[in-house]
Amino acid sequence: MPGAEFAAMALRLQQTSQEFRKELQDTALEQANDIFSSSSDVEMVARMKSAGLAGDLDKIDELTVQICEHSEQLQEACKLLRHIAAAEPLVVAAEHAENNLQTLGPQVISAAQTLCTHPSSKIAKENLDIFCDSWEMQVNDLSMLVKETTDICRGRTMAEKQTYMSLPRPGEQAKIVKLGLEMKLITSEMDAETEKWEEAENDVVKRAKNMSSMAFSMYLFTRGEGPLKTTQDLFTQAAYFAEEANKLHKSVREFLYQVPSGGHKNELQSYLDTVPPLIQQLLFTIKSPTIGKAATFNKVDSVIQETKNLMNAIAKLVTTCLICATKYSIDYRSSPHMAHRWRHQSPMASNGDDASTSSEASGVVRSASAQKALHSLSGYSDVLQ
Questions:
Q1: pTM metric for this prediction
Q2: What distance in Å separates the CA atoms of residue 248 and residue 318, rounded to the nearest whole number?
Q3: Which is nearest to 255 in space by CA: 210, 206, 204?
């Protein structure tokens, strides 16, 4: 029967494809393991350091050729891993390693040449030490990546929950998880406060809710859940969180002019002044480069801590802003064409059909800005690495 023949042919084709993929995986992993078994990166960079200190330019030229060849081999290994990796975090980690190696090789060589020219320079020696250490850490991370890819390709499956390749193992993530929980508490408090206000077009309330949604997605990341799958996603979301905080700060600054002089205005001004430095610190941390898992772990720790600090400041700012609006019955213009009085919404006013669905219930980032962050990750890597 033609149908039976076609089914048998399709089955054979599928089996052949699976066998071919298995051979490709085995060949790629064998080549990657051969690279690490046939070379000693520690010895290579140690010789480069010695040649630099000794001012031996000929030796540096000789080692330059070796490092360039070895770097190309490692980058080829990264490309192979990206093709055979069965999990998205492995692909991301392989691409990250390839980019770092492409940058670090020339940096090690340049630093060694500089030290050779200025052997008594303390700064030149420190620079070479830093680049050599970074090279060793990256190669060590790559060797771990090869092992993890080998485990998965040979049937050892990843845990159901996402394991983020740039982070240490779960036992080392306790501090990050604790920070995430603290940030969720602040998020819940601000959600409870902003839900009392009915103006969907009120700029301060709208941006506060947007930031709450973003912070909640970052909290889910600390649990291995939610839309943010990699540390790069986390850093991008934090960048948009800072952008939204800056917009909210501008809105409150405009609102401040309408608050009469006195204790409440002074308090609002005080909270307002705390926000810009926190935004700048968060952006500085996001843009700082990292090499190696330990450094990335520290960066994630810092980003979540600074996001929590900024969220806490924003919560105080928004609460005080709403108190002032109520006390002084202030009309607030969220746009040049629309005036909104800040009205407190009674518990019965909500019918449950509000477009701003609870992020805790849906587990999805709600705001347009946050959605933009998730859809723009691939083009934002220059800020994150």
A1: 0.51
A2: 9
A3: 204
